[in-house]
Structure formats: structure tokens, C-alpha cells
Specification:
This protein is about 40% helix and about 15% strand. It has about 375 residues and is an alpha/beta fold. It has two domains: about 160 residues, 2-Layer Sandwich (Nucleotidyltransferase, domain 5), CATH 3.30.420.40; about 180 residues, ATPase, nucleotide binding domain (Nucleotidyltransferase, domain 5, 2-Layer Sandwich), CATH 3.30.420.40. The strands form two sheets. It has a five-stranded mixed beta sheet with strand order 3-2-1-4-5, sandwiched between helices. The protein has a five-stranded mixed beta sheet with strand order 8-7-6-9-10. The two termini are about 25 Å apart. The structure holds 5'-O-[(R)-(carboxyoxy)(hydroxy)phosphoryl]adenosine (KG4) and zinc ion (ZN).
């Protein structure tokens, strides 16, 4: 079945719209990032995110339609992220999608953001043909808000093996970058800083949590903070009487001596995160007889993680190109294609679900749009 789906994504700090054909071919993929707006807060400021989505959503959708060179009558459905994410941010996308679907008489499909990240792996990208993915697969979804290990037995069939019990992997990168005074977002800057460091320079703790597939990164973050407190150059005068808050808010890197240089700490931290993510993902692939491993989410852009999983995996590893790892709407449209093939659409009462989980079937089964409308 052929489809042309408009995807809309506003769950966090990216306003995004895309048109995807048959869940595979990206006809357009527009992402308006709010990173500059949130940088001063060292993280995403929810109300500012919602308001910026209100300003950007129509121009972004218009641009996605224009770049795809499609008319509204060419579309099969409108798909939108309805969770997990920030409630106010999600509401902007969901209501825009409802208005368009209603006005253009198109089916509405609510999509789980995590399922979207997984389906980024099905998109055809420049210079590569349709990815061949064989089930079952073990999916590691690692982003600023999520760290989930999922066994996917078929399209739309998900079993959660584990997830973080405290900070998400990307959140750990962001918080450690803040402690080190490296800026926001933390992932790319820690990866770049770590290139000149030794990953074994400092033995940082790994939370194995026994045999479980759960993760914990808050102890690691605290361990980095303790090193900074211990080795920071005390000769530097504190900018405020509260030294701790100065360290946590200052944009200037504190000066660290000798072997405990910034690159060495960044590399040791990155290695500790990558080690645990890789080990548990590969062990799950063995235990559940996965044919492949797929990586997704913003942290899957990390070059060391991609390489380590490839080195240690018992099966082939698939990951999207870097620009499809972070939030985008092409992945939402790709996930929606499968729902549409199964005849799953959402009712007009589609609501936002900030803590939506990824379970076997993520499109809410509601009344048909005719009945609900
Ligand atoms: O998927 P995403 O764009 O948004 C969420 O759904 O959260 O992920 C953003 C997260 C941020 O925490 C960012 O620091 C992290 O992904 N990230 C990275 C890298 N690039 C982005 N983490 C590690 N290494 C990277 N190269
Ligand atoms: Zn995301």
C-alpha cells in the first residue's frame, strides 16, 4: 500500500514536520531547533518551548509541504507525536495535526515518540537503499529524556526489557557537561572534548544493577562532580559566595590539573556510559536471540557508542545517520506508515500523554473519526 504521510513532532525543543512516502522515502524533513533559546538555561525550559512551537509550527509545516512538492490532496494521513514529552509542547503539535486532518478530511494518527526514534532506522537515506531489518531486534533508545532497551518481535510489537531508573543517558551527558562548564547540549561537546583524552584516565563507576537490563547514571554524574570539586584549581576565586552553584552554572571551564584534564574526564565519563549501554544491549541480543541490534535517539549520534556496539555485538548493528538520531518528524511519519497499513488511526479525542510508554501497540484504539467527530 502506498502512502504519503505528513509527520509532526513537537514533544521537546524541536518543531519539526516532514513528508515521507511509504514509510521509507523522505520527501522533506524540516527541523526548527530551539537550542539557542534554551542554551542560557542549560536545558529545555518547558513554557518557552511551548510558546516557540506556537510561533514555528505553521511555517515549519508549510515548508515541509513545499519542499516535498506535494499538495494536500496527495496526502494519505497526518501523523503526530502525542507522547512522551512535555505536555504543553505536545499540545501544539497535536492540535495543529487535528486542525489539518479535520480541514483536509485526512486520517489522524497519534504516534509514540519512542516508536518514532526506532523507525528512523527504516528510512532510506542519501546513497543507501532500503535498510534490511530482520526481527526480532533489540532496540536501544537513548536520548535526552529516555534510555530504553526494547525487544521488538515484529512491526508494532514491543517488549520493554529495561530502562533508566534515574537520569537518561543524554541527560547524564548534559548534566556532566554543565558540571565541567562545557555548555549545552552536552553530548556533542563531550564527544569532541573526549577525542583528546584517555578513556581509562579515571576509573569511574559503572552501575551494572546485577543481571537486570535497567540503567542508572546519577551515581556516575556525582562521581564526576566529586572529581571536579577535588581537583578544581582552588586558586580561582569563586564568582559567587556559593562555590557549588558557581560550578554548576558557570559557562567557563574550571581549570583542572595534570592527568585530570578536561579531555581525560570527558573521555572517562563517555567510556563509562558507553560501556554499560553496550554491554547490556549486546547481552540482551544474545539472550533473546535477536537477529540485529538497532540504535536510536540523540545519544545514538555518539561515535564511540556506535563503534563500541559494532565491535562487541554478536549480530549486525543498524543505526540511523546522525541527523536522523535527534528529534525529527520523518521518523514519526515512518512509524505512522505501519499503523496506517494495519488500519490503525486515532479519534478526535487523541490526547497528549507526557509519560506514554512503548508497549505492543501504541496507537490508541478509539472510536472511528466519523463516530467521534
Ligand atoms: O533525541 P534527542 O534529540 O531529544 C530527546 O528526545 O531527548 O536527544 C537529545 C540528547 C541530548 O541529551 C544530547 O546531549 C544528546 O542527545 N546527544 C549526544 C550526542 N549528540 C546529542 N549524546 C552523546 N553524544 C553525542 N554525540
Ligand atoms: Zn527524542
Amino acid at each position: 500500500m502506498m502512502s504519503r504521510i505528513l509527520g509532526i513532532e513537537t514533544s521537546c525543543d524541536e518543531t519539526a514536520a516532514a513528508v515521507v512516502a511509504d514509510g521509507l522515502a523522505i520527501l522533506s524533513n524540516v527541523v526548527a531547533s530551539q537550542i539557542e533559546l534554551h542554551r542560557q538555561y542549560g536545558g529545555v525550559f518547558p513554557e518557552i518551548a511551548s510558546r516557540q512551537h506556537v510561533l514555528s509550527i505553521v511555517p515549519v509545516i508549510r515548508q515541509a509541504m513545499a519542499e516535498a512538492s506535494v499538495d494536500w490532496s496527495d496526502l494519505t494521513a497526518v501523523a503526530v507525536t502525542h507522547g512522551p514529552g512535555l505536555a504543553g509542547a505536545l499540545l501544539v503539535g497535536v492540535n495543529a495535526a487535528k486542525g489539518l486532518a479535520l480541514g483536509r478530511n485526512l486520517p489522524l494518527i497519534g504516534i509514540n515518540h519512542l516508536e518514532g526514534h526506532v523507525y528512523a532506522n527504516w528510512l532510506i537515506t542519501e546513497g543507501s537503499s532500503a535498510p534490511q531489518i530482520a526481527f526480532p531486534v533489540v532496540c536501544l533508545i537513548v536520548s535526552g529524556g529516555h534510555t530504553e532497551l526494547i525487544l521488538m518481535s515484529d512491526h508494532g510489537q514491543y517488549q520493554r526489557l529495561g530502562g533508566t531508573i534515574d537520569d537518561a543517558a543524554g541527560e547524564a551527558f548534559d548534566k556532566v557537561a554543565r558540571i565541567l562548564g562545557l555548555g549545552y547540549p552536552g553530548g556533542p561537546v563531550i564527544q569532541a572534548t573526549a577525542e583528546n583524552g584517555k578513556p581509562d584516565a579515571f576509573p569511574l563507576p559503572r552501575a551494572w544493577l546485577g543481571e537486570s537490563y535497567d540503567f542508572s547514571f546519577s551515581g556516575l554524574k556525582t562521581a564526576v562532580l566529586r572529581i571536579v570539586e577535588k581537583y578544581e584549581d582552588k586558586a580561582l576565586p569563586p564568582q559567587t559566595p556559593d562555590k557549588r552553584s558557581r560550578r554548576l552554572t558557570s559557562q567557563e571551564p574550571p581549570i583542572l590539573r595534570g592527568a585530570l584534564s578536561m579531555p581525560n574526564i570527558a573521555a572517562s565519563f563517555q567510556e563509562a556510559v558507553v560501556d554499560v549501554l553496550t554491554e547490556k544491549t549486546c547481552r540482551a541480543a544474545k539472550e533473546f536471540g535477536a537477529k540485529q541490534i538497532i540504535l536510536s535517539g540523540g545519544v545514538a549520534a555518539n561515535a564511540v557508542l556506535r563503534q563500541e556496539v559494532r565491535n562487541r555485538a554478536p549480530v549486525p548493528v543498524v543505526c540511523p545517520p546522525v541527523y536522523l538520531c535527534s528529534d525529527n518528524a520523518a521518523m514519526i511519519a515512518a512509524a505512522a506508515h505501519r499503523h496506517w497499513m494495519r488500519g490503525e488511526t486515532s479519534g478526535w479525542d487523541l490526547d497528549v500523554v507526557p509519560n506514554l510508554k512503548l508497549t505492543h501497540n501504541t496507537t490508541p484504539k478509539q472510536e472511528t473519526q466519523e463516530n467521534a467527530g
